[in-house]
Batch of 4 targets.
Target 1
Amino acid sequence: MRRFVIPLVVLLAAGCGQLGSSPEDVAADAARKAAERAGDRIYDARVRPAQDMAHRAADLDGVEVMRVTGASTAGDGVRLVLRTSGTAPDGGWFPTSTVTVQRCFELRFSTTTEWQHYGTRDVACPANGPLTFKPWPKTPQIPSERLRKALPRVPEGGRADEAKVRAAVASLRLDPAVRREFRTEGDVVGVALVAKPYGSDLFDCVLARVAPGRNSVWTPPRMQRMAGEGGCGAGNAVHPMPPPH
């Protein structure tokens, strides 16, 4: 008889764990957690336009944006109504199916909001369908190999000519959104081609150093390409920074 005591206790404990919580309640709690995880994914302490916050939420799997209010995360901030779903076993000792529910939650994001503190509250789902958004603006490509081939070669003992370097870059017919920067020091010409992905603090950039006997084309390390680090300037092309430790 004794060998049956432990399984029975386990079964009773499992059954007690469901008391007061219907499958729908458990599924709704899972939907709330999904909305809060979405908030964690799109949270940003920077000032962001409301449409960008909504767009970022809509890009997440299993998240639908039903409403967006506010102008930006500055001041009163942005309020998003997100629709998520949750699933739970249908109850009983040996559940054979699941219950899935959809719920809507309002979350608030502002520059004063702390991570995981979005004031998440249940709201009635709006009658409209999920909002849709245009694709994010594309970041123009910087053709490093074509740049490498186009740059003029300077023989040993010679001097790089900035006019010729500018002409080589112009021959690439780059997207107007790519910023071009040139700098001449002594017999060396430095080039920086820079593009900024929409909404990012990380620049895309390619540097080139045209010098007697050798040309160099490279992309700086990620840390140097962050805003304020100065790694995407022509000065870094003339005098390359040491790699970060």
Target 2
Amino acid sequence: MIIEVLKSKIHRVKVTQAELNYVGSITIDEDLMDAANILANEKVQIVNNNNGERFETYVIKGERGTGTVCLNGAAARLVQVGDIVIIMSYAYMEMEEARNHEPIAVFPDVHNKLIK
């Protein structure tokens, strides 16, 4: 049996931009992507802690070291700049692999920078 489990998450990151007139996606600082093992074009779920919205989109690389978290296209209507969101990615695994899987969790600081 194959199940879907949490692969990784960027926990409580701040939205820095919302660009309605853009092809839909979420732009994420490449440092955050690397730390969370999230790839460009990967599907992610976004949970907005400020308003309860939950939605899916795909990732595009943002400039490394900028702290960028920008919701683009229709998703821009579901956030406000300054909202706190959780970005989650999932993976399909065999049941036995999933039993031992440890998701990656990234906890950035208030400026969306990696805590060292």
Target 3
Amino acid sequence: MSDLVRLTLTEARAALARRAISARELAEAHLAAMESARDLNAYITETPERALAMAAAADARLRRGEAGLLEGIPLAIKDLFCTEGILTTAGSRILDGFVPPYESTVTRKLWEAGAVCLGKANLDEFAMGSANVTSWYGPVRNPWTRPAEETPLVPGGSSGGSAAAVAARIALGATGTDTGGSIRQPASFCGIVGMKPTYGRCSRFGIVAFASSLDQAGPLTRTVADCALLLQAMAGYDPRDSTSADLEVPDWIGGLSGRIRGLRIGIPAEYRVEGMPVEIERLWERGAEWLRAAGAEIREISLPHTRYALPAYYIIAPAEASSNLARYDGMRYGLRIEGDDLTETYMKTRGEGFGTEVKRRVLIGTYALSAGYYDAYYLKAQKVRRRIAEDFAEAFREVDAILTPTAPSAAFRLGEKSDDPVAMYLNDVFTVPASLAGLPGISVPAGLSTEGLPLGLQVIGRAWDEATVLDVGRALEEAAAFTTLPYGLAEAA
């Protein structure tokens, strides 16, 4: 049974299609693996009974020849997606006990495609964090550790539970959300593939909102082909989401070739930030050489407003969070702590229901939106955002995709940066610009740090051109040939 959890999503799908394995066997193998890996704290809620029932239904459809795109594939769902009848918490005490009466569009599409729900994955509270240490349900541990060292490492965030589950082989794939890098950065830290599609490619309906103009759902998987497959099931127009694009979903699976001969790949000078570790710089150079060897043309480009991206993001995102989180008042759902009057009830509920990082961002956002500061902060940040988008538009007149590092470091120790919010925010320095511009980006595992931890490379593409991003990602994947397992898993193999 343990061999089943080592299949890729694509391999499992093929084995199910030829009836070499059953969906029930696949689900049981993952449920057993989840039980043995609870020390990672990757899941907030496990759903074994539902998983077995969904697997039985998948087996019946497979027997009838009615298989969907993801028939029988067991997935972890980030606990930011509302799931009908299953606890949905956003990693926050204020939503503890909330069981939605409806389904998010992304998860509904996954169930319609035949996928199996293993449970709800842990995350930073309300997706606010870069290490998965702010969850009310405790931090997630990265399945990777430094060789011969047991000190736990962070999995990245906010989709750290999803990334850890995929890397630890306790889910074949997972959903995540990416606001400023929350899919791509944990993918890099955990040695897997993570993709943020173009803003508007996947519906946001039923996803607990953080920053509405930035949040976007995407897949976390172990290969680029798996990523294309899972994204194809997740994407599509939704009339219930006004930001959802009314565009046909391309056949990313059928079109995935990894052939990039003749493509022009940009290397942005501004991403060579001060203090960048030498090993990150070398990996980036190696990635460019791999793409050149595959027939691509490498060009130096400029994205001049890059240095303003992080400050702009940390005004825009908290401002939108301040607005979105105003709805959590203890009146309609989730936590309610009674006070002597209505005002005190609000204050107690929000004061005790939100964690420190959420409070920090709500206060920053409220300040940025307040009278006398709106123009000076929020409006100026939006102008900077437009300049950043224009930089990318200008660059894409010269190149077809852009190659950068995913994160400025490998995974760090649990608790290492918890007392320094600015140091934590700097983890998103390479991912935030594409988020502000609404562009697709993928992180592909490309090598190991000097301490033996995974490092990722990021590919950014034009809006709606996920196909090119996936092809360049596939070319990197083939060249890197990254097959190293987290060390505990490797010893058990």
Target 4
Amino acid sequence: MPKSFTIPKFYKRLFYAVSTVFLLLNLLLLFAVDDTPLSKVHQGLNREDIQRAKQLLHVGPEEFDQVKIVTLNQKDINIAVSYLLNHFVENTVQIQVSKGVIFVQIAVFVPETIWGRYLDFNFKLIQDGNSIRIESFKIGEISIPDTAANFLIPVIVAYTPLKKYWRVGEDYIKDIRFTDEGLQVSYLGSIVVVAKQLVIQQHREYPNLHLYQQQINDIVSRHDIAWRLSLNDLFQPLFLSAYRRSDEQSAVRENRAVIIAVGSYIYKQELRRYLPLGLVYSKEYQVFAYKRVDIPQHFIASALLAAVDASLLGERLGEDKELGDAESGSGFSFVDLAADRAGTRFGQTAVASPKQARELQLQMSQSKDYTIYMSDIKGLPEHMDEETFSVRFGGTASPLYRDMMAEIDERIAKLPLYRTR
């Protein structure tokens, strides 16, 4: 009779330990990750947001050594947090202010799993004298004790890419006070200069930027003036180059470089003083989509804001009259909003993850025209002055307005570049 095989106790214990850890990890993911975000998806900066940011951030040279005070309302805080985080991870933010307490919901987009693709963070911030306290911190359905949350959050920030922004805040922000409507921030005026230098330094991290700019120079030098220069005439060959020279580790960086390069051509004068361009283009043509020059302008502006740095570019692009608004004479336009939202989706997708960045490079390198990433504009109302817009749609909170925005979002979602995301 053959001798029976006995599993040593050590291996039994190891098996039980591994199984327990695996089970606990799955339970944690089950309660932490969800199919839908708890917070409403942020749709990106519109023209009013850009103008508001421009006003808030304006500091004259004579104010660099002065302490300034700015009051941020609930919408300002949502925009600022969303776009700061968006440079590191795709996210959606919902922040509410009530009687001096700030309620925060952040959903981070993670690779799709059997548990879902949203990691939700919920907490509230309370002012306690000169300090700010975190309470009721939750990751999904998992509650974190207040003591642990207040210890861990600063430590996590200090050891992530957010660290450089944290340090600037420590050096230049003098005081933060909660109000019933938002925040009152006292800061040294020179923080604006330091922030701009921080952004410029970030852009120097794109060693191939000048190659993409030189490629644009070659493209426009060979362009037949009898034909309109299409947005895709720039994007397709640049993303083909990006696909060939990058891998999954560098794809996000290269996509940002391509978007900066195209933005530097479309917004030539506006960005040259603020980005390390170093190139005078041999020929400067207007860039078209759907036989219009305003659509590429809106598209690339929003792509830049989503993929690169909203704090700097939002201030600069907000000054450019080509963005337009109802007060400029061009009128309110759902065509403009469609281009804005498509550009935001494009910029977010380009840097969402190494895998998505690589997939976007491949699809863009094979693109025949801009219709794979810029939706059709047929039937979208435009050229409405404030009175006409009010009579026809009744304001941005009306069902008619929301239906129109839903139609725009549906058109974008059906585009080949975004269909599988």
